[in-house]
């Protein structure tokens, strides 16, 4: 392969150029060249309109002409409006300002959902209710609303610790306050910055041992300097701290401690239209073509594809919620239950700079900012491939009115040239047997942009029975302005990597905790640790001195299932102890972890007390409807008293019970120069894989899809 050196050869720098000789030779090895007249579409302003297969935009509620009402469906726009009316009518003093902080489905009882589902939806639908958190007169109110009777089922003032999610509206209002605040205007003047080029952003303040009576619902603001770029997060105006009391909506504390240069504007641009040569190499246009259209069906929120059947919900806090996933077993001629519900329960992102302006940055992206609330519209052809179908979603605004999220999800069949299974048999004289099955999977995707970071959330269903859950980290780093222009100048702890002049990328973590309520062939499951242990051979019965074998251990209580990965080799299987295969193995699904990252903060550090749910990579609890958010229902300013760590301290019995698996995946992020000014996607994930669930390879009889006949193609 040609070594490109530091500069790209001209022929690689332009779109649609001929391949260099060396590349063509390699690419041509052992394959027939196919020349097609399929027109490559240039990616420009009108990109989504020019494709041969038009992206399909489907409203969540009117897909394929059918409307299926399901117990776990997210709230509809009509229901949001209904809830708004009910809550307003129930307000005792209408003069008080009322804000909707969280409006979501109040989970119907699992038993009722399952019986409704198993009766083929002929029995009565479980009651449809909403759980609503409002703020009225500086108090947090919890209300459960019944939608069928338009009534309030319960209502109470929450007096515990912590506060609900921030709304977009209150964050926007807070961001505007500094522009009318004289000390801030003076700080900007002192720095010789143009006020019209300053923008501010909101940051949760965490909890650092403050007394309850002194605590307020607050946000901190950080401001940035555009002045010639849209890449604001890499141009912080350091030294200033602004504290906003959200109930009063005013600045209550302000400090301006020092001045360092705003990181330079050169090299921070990421918009394609603003880039100047030299450009990177271009690749030939590529797409996925499905001449017969998507091979899946969406009925309401139920998605059916290949051997899978599942429900796709949406919550303002969690984002996508996969529920009632079952897989068709060809041998048994039935759908078998796998996953009752799966979603991101919390994302914890602590930064490692303990100085005055940075120490508090220990974010709970789901519980404070809303992973679903922060979802952004997916762009056809770039966020999702040509064959993707798009779905909209809805959230309640601060006033309770529904807000549409267009292109919230995309669903598509993914063919990335991978192999599902294969074998070439060369051992039979005179014969070559080759069997290959290409891997086609189904992906559900959402992107959440929480301030500077973009998280790509994928749920991928494989015909082999696996559910692969992916997370991609991209977007803009949260950087700190500093006086350094070279690492040689850094003589003290800088808490990060120098990425460019005056620009430090601060060390931090991303921890995601997934709620995985596996119901493997039913609710009654157990968690089995299949430990791999070395055995010594000392009796000279073999020329070998050792081997490894498996020792299975069923977790009886929650403490038996608290696992820090990476210490000992093991497999982690959720089995149904009441169901065996014909050869006697318990049917199961195992977790194949993708990350063995654990927290590095000390246990007594306040952020870690709040995020003690990250202390173990795996935990198992008995199903409990109220145990939904691992960081607590009220994550903002939480104190760790309502976390997974606290719930599991009860050490409940988990053997042969309806259990929930919690998996915490993490990334320690030491920023590097390649992450600047926008970060190439860093991917992680895990897999839930059938383990003695099927009697044999479930995709043995899967047929190869018919070849796609490309128009005007010739083979040579
Ligand atoms: Cu990061």
Which descriptors would you attach to this protein?
716 residues; Nuclear Transport Factor 2, Chain: A; Beta-galactosidase, Chain A, domain 5; 20-stranded mixed sheet; four-stranded antiparallel sheet; binds copper (II) ion; primary methylamine oxidase activity; disulfide bond; Cu_amine_oxidase_N3; TPQ; metal-binding
Structure description:
- Its cofactor is Cu cation.
- Residues 287-700 form the Copper amine oxidase catalytic domain.
- Pfam families: Cu_amine_oxid (PF01179), Cu_amine_oxidN2 (PF02727), Cu_amine_oxidN3 (PF02728).
- GO terms for molecular function: copper ion binding; primary methylamine oxidase activity; quinone binding.
- The active site is at 365 (proton acceptor), 453 (schiff-base intermediate with substrate).
- The chain is mainly β.
- It folds into three domains: 10-57, no CATH class; 77-158, Roll (Nuclear Transport Factor 2, Chain: A); 301-691, Distorted Sandwich (Beta-galactosidase, Chain A, domain 5).
- Helices cover 9% and strands 39% of the residues.
- It is built from eight helices and 33 strands.
- The strands form five sheets. The protein has a 20-stranded mixed β-sheet that branches. It has a four-stranded antiparallel β-sheet with strand order 3-4-5-6, covered by helices on one side. A four-stranded antiparallel β-sheet has the order 7-8-9-10, covered by helices on one side.
- β23 (496-500) and β24 form a beta hairpin.
- The longest helix has 14 residues, at 77-90.
- It is globular and about 85 Å long.
- Residues 1-69 have low confidence and may be disordered.
- The structure holds copper (II) ion.
């Amino acid at each position: 392969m040609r070594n490109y050196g530091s500069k790209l050869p001209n022929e690689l720098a332009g779109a649609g150029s001929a391949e260099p000789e060396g590349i063509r030779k390699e690419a041509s090895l052992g394959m027939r060249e196919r020349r097609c007249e399929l027109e490559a579409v240039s990616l420009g302003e009108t990109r989504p309109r020019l494709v041969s297969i038009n992206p399909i935009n489907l409203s969540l509620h009117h897909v394929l002409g059918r409307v299926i009402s399901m117990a776990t469906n997210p709230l509809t726009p009509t229901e949001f409006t209904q809830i708004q009316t009910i809550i307003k009518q129930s307000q005792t003093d209408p003069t008080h300002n009322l804000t909707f902080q969280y409006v979501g489905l109040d989970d119907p009882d699992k038993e009722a959902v399952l019986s409704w589902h198993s009766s083929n939806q002929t029995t009565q639908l479980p009651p449809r209710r909403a759980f609503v958190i409002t703020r009225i007169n500086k108090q947090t109110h919890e209300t459960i609303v019944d939608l069928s009777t338009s009534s309030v089922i319960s209502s109470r003032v929450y007096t515990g610790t912590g506060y609900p999610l921030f709304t977009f509206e209150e964050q926007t209002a807070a961001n505007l306050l500094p522009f009318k605040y004289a000390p801030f205007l003076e700080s900007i003047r002192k720095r010789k910055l143009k006020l019209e080029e300053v923008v501010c952003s909101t940051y949760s303040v965490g909890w650092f041992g403050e007394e309850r009576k002194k605590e307020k619902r607050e946000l901190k603001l950080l401001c940035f300097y555009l002045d010639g770029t849209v890449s604001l997060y890499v141009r912080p105006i350091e030294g200033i701290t602004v504290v906003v009391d959200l109930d009063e909506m005013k600045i209550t504390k302000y400090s301006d401690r020092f001045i360092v240069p705003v990181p330079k504007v050169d090299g921070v641009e990421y918009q394609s239209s603003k880039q100047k040569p030299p450009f990177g190499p271009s690749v030939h246009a590529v797409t996925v073509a499905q001449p017969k259209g998507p091979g899946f069906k969406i009925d309401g929120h139920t998605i059916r594809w290949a051997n899978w059947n599942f429900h796709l919900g949406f919550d303002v806090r969690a984002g996508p919620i996969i529920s009632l996933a079952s897989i068709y077993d060809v041998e048994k001629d039935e759908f078998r239950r796998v996953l009752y519900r799966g979603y991101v329960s919390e994302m914890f992102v602590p930064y490692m700079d303990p100085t005055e302006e940075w120490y508090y940055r220990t974010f709970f992206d789901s519980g404070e900012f809303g992973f679903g609330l922060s979802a952004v519209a997916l762009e056809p052809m770039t966020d999702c491939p040509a064959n993707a179908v798009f779905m909209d979603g809805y959230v309640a605004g601060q006033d309770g009115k529904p807000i549409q999220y267009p292109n919230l999800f995309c669903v598509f069949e993914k063919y990335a040239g991978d192999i599902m299974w294969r074998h070439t048999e060369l051992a039979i004289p005179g014969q070559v047997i080759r069997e290959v099955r290409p891997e086609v999977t189904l992906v559900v995707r959402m992107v959440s942009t929480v301030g500077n970071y973009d998280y790509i959330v994928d749920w991928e269903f494989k015909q082999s029975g696996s559910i692969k859950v992916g997370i991609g980290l991209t977007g803009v780093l949260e950087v700190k302005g500093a006086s350094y222009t070279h690492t040689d100048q850094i003589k003290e702890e800088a808490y990060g990597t120098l990425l460019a002049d005056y620009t430090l990328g601060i060390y931090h973590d991303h921890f995601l905790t997934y709620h995985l309520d596996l119901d493997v062939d039913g609710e009654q499951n157990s968690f089995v640790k299949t430990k791999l242990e070395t055995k010594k051979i000392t009796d000279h019965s073999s020329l070998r001195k050792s081997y490894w074998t498996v020792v299975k251990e069923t977790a009886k209580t929650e403490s038996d299932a608290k696992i820090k990965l990476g210490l000992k080799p093991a497999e982690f299987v959720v089995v149904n102890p009441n169901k065996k295969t014909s050869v006697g193995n318990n049917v199961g699904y195992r977790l194949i972890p993708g990350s063995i990252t654990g927290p590095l903060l000390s246990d007594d550090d306040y952020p870690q007390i709040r995020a003690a749910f990250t202390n173990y990579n795996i935990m198992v609890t008995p199903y409990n409807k109220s145990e939904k958010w691992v960081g607590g229902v009220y994550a903002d300013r939480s104190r760790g008293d309502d976390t997974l760590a606290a719930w599991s301290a009860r050490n409940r019995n988990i053997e042969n019970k309806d259990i929930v698996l919690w998996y915490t995946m993490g990334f320690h992020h030491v920023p590097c120069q390649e992450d600047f000014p926008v970060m190439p996607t860093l991917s992680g994930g895990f897999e839930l894989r059938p383990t003695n669930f099927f009697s044999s390879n479930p995709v043995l009889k899967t047929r190869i899809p018919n070849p796609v006949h490309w128009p005007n193609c010739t083979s040579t």
